[in-house]
Amino acid sequence: MKRLRLGVIGTGSVVREIYQYLYFHSAYSHLLSVEGAADPNGQALAWFCGRFGIPAERRFDSYEEMIERLELDAVHVNTPDSLHCAPTVHALERDLDVLVSKPLADTAVDAHAMLTTARQRGKLVAVDYHKRDDPRLVDVAARYRSGVYGQFQVAVWYMLDKLMVADPNHEPRFFASDDFAVKNSPITFLTVHMADSFLQTVGLRPVRIRATGFSQKLPSLTPIPVQGLDLCDTEVVFENGGVAHIVTGWHLPNTAHSITVQSSRLICTDGLIDLAMDMCGYREITSEGIVERNSLFRNFETDGRVSGYGMSYPGRLLEKIMSRRDGEMGTEEYEAMMSPFETGFYTTAVCDAAERSLEAGTRSKDNVIHGVDVDVAEVLKDELGDAANDYL
Ligand SMILES: NC(=O)c1ccc[n+]([C@@H]2O[C@H](COP(=O)([O-])OP(=O)(O)OC[C@H]3O[C@@H](n4cnc5c(N)ncnc54)[C@H](O)[C@@H]3O)[C@@H](O)[C@H]2O)c1
Fold this sequence. Notes:
There is one protein chain. The protein is an alpha/beta fold and 392 residues long. The chain has two domains: 169 residues, NAD(P)-binding Rossmann-like Domain (Rossmann fold, 3-Layer(aba) Sandwich), CATH 3.40.50; 162 residues, Dihydrodipicolinate Reductase, domain 2 (2-Layer Sandwich). Strands 7, 8, 9, 10, 11, 12, 17, 18 and 19 form a nine-stranded mixed sheet that branches. A six-stranded parallel sheet has the order 3-2-1-4-5-6, sandwiched between helices. α1 crosses α9, α6 crosses α8 and α8 crosses α11. The relative contact order is 0.15. The site of nicotinamide-adenine-dinucleotide (NAD) has 20 residues, from α1.
């Protein structure tokens, strides 16, 4: 078996937290050969390459140069959300397949450009929405699609992080920069996960969005205040008339039992599901406090191997990329992998519309931003013109 020759673009937090294990310590590592890495941040690049013995001539500050100089089958794009499109399109145009860290992109226009180029070149763009492999969500999606719950009517799915994630005053810093929660909103960072897992469950297209944002806790932080959003409620109306509230934020007290407290309730015509997603059945009590361990996501085994859905989902996507490379993936499978649901196009459309809803909204004296109603079809037509019809 010929290993997949992979170039890594971006070697920041997500590589440190997740992908270093996928590349070098997972059940998929023997399928891969990390040929080189590119990142303009010399410190991040040196950390990654130094740790895994990637020699100086395979370290690049430009992905264009890496792609030109190395023999690759695929690249893994780990740049910030707004910078997914350029390296992806560049790699596709050089006939490489691409794995992207979630989300596909932060705007529908970027997402469309990536998918269009992939189709033109007959290449794959696969997005690592690892939550899709959480066994509970896999089961719920299959049961919902089998019809046992009937028709979805109303859902509340939430994901709330501890304040330390957004607070630049917290030591040690969770994210390095003071302006992390100014530059990133809970929508770009968290709603994407929950919106995507919801869309995967119900398989319905989103048609209207209205977001409400709260900026009350973060500006009160000292000595560094943060002019960002604490919490967002994104109301999504689906093609069947069902309404989901995707509630995300990062201002839970640091005493929370998990970095991310998340749960879901889905009410349908013939049933209801409750998903306590942060309860993985394993609670740890140490001198540090009481913590729910999410070993379903990332499990450090005694032999040094790392397993869990944080590894298995991107690992299986890399297997698909290998099968495409080796000519073993037929048209039907390719089309399924490139569908707007599978690539996360609709997830991007939800978040893009939610940001637009807030931008056009009004701020109350209590610092609540009441977003406007946004028609997803209008956003797509505005951004993509006639090509919007591909997704409607
Ligand atoms: N941090 C996480 O746990 C996590 C989890 C899942 C997905 N993600 C996603 O992963 C992506 C990266 O997030 P992150 O948290 O690692 O961000 P980060 O800012 O920590 O790292 C991004 C890296 O990309 C590099 N970069 C920027 N422009 C580049 C370019 N032109 N070429 C090559 N490298 C470039 C930056 O220098 C930086 O080192 C985002 O899309 C994010 O949503 C992050």
